[in-house]
Amino acid sequence: MKPTVHDIAAHAGVSLATVDRVLNGRAGVREVTRLRVEEAVTALGFVRDVAAANLAKGRVYTFTFILPANDNSFMIGLRAEVEQAARRASGERMAIRIVDVPAFDTGALVAALEDAQAGMPDGVAFVAIDAAEVRAAAENLLAAGIAVVTLVSDLGGTARTHYAGIDNIAAGRTAGMLTGRFLSGRAGPVLPLAGSLMVRDHRERLQGFSAVMTERFPERAILAPVEGRDDPATAERMVEEALAAHGDLCGIYSFGAGNRGLIRAIERLPTQMRPVVILHELTDVTRLALVADLIDAVLNQDAGHEVRSAIRVLKAAADGSKVVEAQERIRIDIFLKDNLP
Amino acid sequence: MKPTVHDIAAHAGVSLATVDRVLNGRAGVREVTRLRVEEAVTALGFVRDVAAANLAKGRVYTFTFILPANDNSFMIGLRAEVEQAARRASGERMAIRIVDVPAFDTGALVAALEDAQAGMPDGVAFVAIDAAEVRAAAENLLAAGIAVVTLVSDLGGTARTHYAGIDNIAAGRTAGMLTGRFLSGRAGPVLPLAGSLMVRDHRERLQGFSAVMTERFPERAILAPVEGRDDPATAERMVEEALAAHGDLCGIYSFGAGNRGLIRAIERLPTQMRPVVILHELTDVTRLALVADLIDAVLNQDAGHEVRSAIRVLKAAADGSKVVEAQERIRIDIFLKDNLP
DNA sequence: CTGTTAGCGCTTTCAA
DNA sequence: TTGAAAGCGCTAACAG
């Protein structure tokens, strides 16, 4: 039978309360007593029953998720994952509140963060905008003892407990490597298509992409990046213009949203003129395009994993426990048509 | 505040015991009473606190993991993950026993399964050998009400609750696609290097690889697969022989273990003669080779994820609850040197 | 500094 | 067929 606090108390010749104090590192225990208890713990191989502890604490973890009211597939999916997680979490003594804010609106985000802080939750997760005001608001949360997790998009500096998202520089590098290798033997320039170069993730992706192209494929021309504003129509126009200007355009790396437009433009091209296309986020549209050989690879971040990870990290932070590091690293999924989930 | 059994009891005008009987579908409750309770449950939106229930039941989930005493890096890592998970699990009312069996030994595996069954655990996870006797043993477990999860390597038929591992056909296809595309414009044959074609995973990987090569790159010659027996020295010799026989060998897909030997052989080749190499499992050796540009991509299955997933599935099966499907799909990770974790 | 005691939400005897 | 009461392993007042 597994030893319980009672066994420890008996073995150490102290009361339950004292055992509890030692176990939870609370003050008010003489050094000798503490040692006796700790000895008993190791002697009996005691492992605290977390479920029982939480039950006794009657503790309900409260977390606030702040999400941009963005209408692209990825954000819609992210929201759905948070909702689903919230439902399951309610059975595990966690209450998750979801707050919507207008997309790309620094002021609104800051207001939402302040608002969240007023409610004194155990933790806050949000899709960051990398601005000084946001950083300040995040630091306030931390100062108030509230765990802060950035989701999908990170904050510069260290004004957060954890970042649940992919390494965007690595993602850009990966895209560069795939583009370069898939194009071996084919001449022509490559177009980087951003959502907006104002957002940190997109800048980082471009940075990684450019770095690899320069290091590994120096002979390949990289066009100046254009911005599709995460909007299908704009993206489509940008691609059309690039194709018109460069008849030999042979590659596109799209690292923003609005890929429906890009795909429409590609679709109109005769097969043998189609560029190698690498883009981000697996959605209905990009999946179909991959299957139809309109695009060549999709780099993806798993929103479900990001949300679950954020919750685990917030919970661990709330009760000062540790997480399995490897489990919380968000992978850059590379999907070809052959390994689609 | 979340409603508890007390609230239900009060609302329905019955005692706790009766609520419990209804909640757990036990007999001995009049139909009218049952309905009153169920009504209260839905009216108050009651969700049973599983942790508290388990605490009261004093239930400890017992799971047995049967692992091959194999000395390759992957299996060593897998074992370490199980051990780590076992430690954490003991704090969550789960007791995980690890049993070692000689690798590739059907009889020993069957004996271990029977042995496990005798102990009547709640679930068993094991690295399957795809043989009729094993299938029969697994079916016995299921018949005894014990959940069965195959780990890393699956069993044909449906003699299991769940498979925690990658889709090996898809992995082979992915390797084929990468090989074909990375080689565009370069002539020469490609060598499939198996561990053993007796194991199902390896056969499936070869099958997927061959299929893609035939469909998409029909002009590319595929040599007859050779077996490295998961042994570095043998693999090295096989590669040497292939290189000697085919001076223009330009690609190798290695889908077994023992890659240290393969890498040694590659290392000796002048840079411009090196074939495109795709292999499985990220280990110290393969990681270094990737960084050093000796190989081109590593397909990987995350042992930690597989183990955690197996445990979640076993637990869910034990208490008849559902899992998050998407979370339990084991990904085929594609690692280039740019997205190494 | 240490111990006593009453729960947390649920299950489980044992009576009625 | 139903209910009262005692716990599961742990925590948290409140005394001492």
SSE order of chain A: HHHHEHEHEHEEHEHEHEHEHEHE
Percent of sequence in beta strands of chain A: 5-15%
Which outline of chain A best applies? elongated
The number of helices of chain A is 13
What's the CATH H-level homologous superfamily of the largest domain in chain A? Response regulator
Record field, number of beta strands of chain A:
11
Q: How many discrete domains of chain A? A: 3
- Please give the oligomerization state of what you see: homodimer
Structural class of chain A: alpha/beta
Major sheet: arrangement of strands of chain A: 7-6-8-9-10-11
**Rg for CA atoms of chain A:** 25 Å
Average predicted local confidence, pLDDT of chain A: 94
**Span between N and C termini of chain A?**
43 Å
User: Can you name the CATH architecture of the largest domain in chain A?
Assistant: 3-Layer(aba) Sandwich
Which chain pair has the greatest contact? A-B, 48 and 49 residues
The residue fraction in helices of chain A comes out at: 40-55%
Characterize the main sheet of chain A: 6 strands, mixed
CATH topology of the largest domain in chain A: Rossmann fold
In CATH's first tier, which class of the largest domain in chain A applies? Alpha Beta
Low-confidence stretches of chain A: none
